[in-house]
Design brief:
Blueprint (H helix, E strand, L loop, with lengths): L2 E12 L2 E12 L3 E5 L6 H9 L6 E6 L2 E2 L5 H7 L1 E4 L11 H11 L7 H11 L15 H14 L4 E5 L7 H16 L3 E5 L3 H5 L4 E6 L2 E6 L1 H6 L1 H8 L3 H5 L1
Parallel strand pairs: 3-8, 3-9, 6-7, 7-8
Antiparallel strand pairs: 1-2, 1-4, 4-5, 9-10
Helix pairs in contact: 3-4, 3-5, 4-5
Bound molecules: adenosine-5'-triphosphate.
């Protein structure tokens, strides 16, 4: 399987604060990869470095066999890296459908028929009945779906999902997981940062744990979650507690 994304010794410092610390990993095309870690561990920063909204302090980012370390964010989007944000900010005065058309015109879509493609994405993300509603009138779940749909409309090869399930009810979360599984099964590579671990592990086949900007564990999700170090870092269960 070809490598879609490769990070080599990526570092990011804000003054004296190191937020990405020698991050190195390869991601095969078509993989669904989860990233977890405590608040402030540097997860969203990593997305900013992959998407190009932040420049690395050192190290390299390769996407689809090209060195994109110095490539601006808009160009990376056109190359096929799309992202959903923790807090959705759609164009609230535009319709849901128009929001997708905007994303399609800026992205990597190259669709022969962008309108038909956007309608198909609305259908796949459950937003077709809301297509002509102003984006500002959507519920939280619908806004999350729109965030996903806009990212898809840009024609991604790699989709970065930043805490997309946050704030949803259990039932809503389940609905969204099914939609993301559909995207994964269509062959789009996915990296998903999420605190709702059961939602994440329902989709991803590999998990990376970040703490203080450093990768501290990675591998098959159930094995990673059973690692005592991960339990201590992520869930506050210390090895001593379990022994008591
Ligand atoms: N532009 C910036 N300037 C200075 N410090 C920053 C900047 N962006 C992020 N940080 C700091 O970097 C650290 C990592 O932030 P980041 O948002 O990447 O963490 P996170 O793991 O995504 O957290 P959360 O789970 O809460 O979203 C935090 O201490 C944050 O305050």
């Amino acid at each position: 399987m070809a490598t879609i994304l490769s990070l080599s010794n990526v570092n990011k410092n804000f003054g004296a604060l190191t937020v990405s610390d020698d991050v190195t990993f390869d991601m095969p095309e078509g993989q669904a990869l989860g990233i977890i870690g405590p608040n402030g561990a540097g997860k969203s920063t990593l997305f900013n470095l992959i998407g190009g909204t932040l420049a690395v302090s050192s190290g390299t980012v390769q996407f689809a066999k090209q060195d994109v370390t110095r490539v601006p964010a808009a160009e990376r989007c056109r190359m096929g890296i799309a992202r959903s944000f923790q807090i959705p900010h759609p164009f609230v005065g535009m319709s849901v459908y128009e929001n997708l058309l905007v994303a399609s015109s800026f992205g990597n879509s190259g669709h022969h028929d962008a309108k038909a493609e956007c309608r198909d994405i609305l259908d796949r993300t459950g937003l077709l009945p809301k297509a002509n509603r102003p984006a500002g009138s959507l519920t939280l779940l619908e806004r999350k779906r729109l965030e996903l749909a806009r990212a898809l409309a840009s024609g991604p090869k790699l989709l970065l999902l930043d805490e997309i399930a946050g704030g949803l009810t259990e039932a809503e979360c389940h609905e969204l997981v099914e939609t993301i599984k559909g995207i994964r099964d269509s062959g789009v590579s996915i990296i998903w940062i999420e605190h709702i671990v059961h939602a994440l592990t329902a989709v991803v086949e590999r998990l990376i744990v970040i703490d203080f900007g450093k990768i501290v564990a990675e591998g098959e999700p159930s094995k990673v979650m059973a690692d005592p170090l991960v339990q201590e870092i992520y869930m506050g269960i210390s090895v001593d507690d379990t022994a008591a």
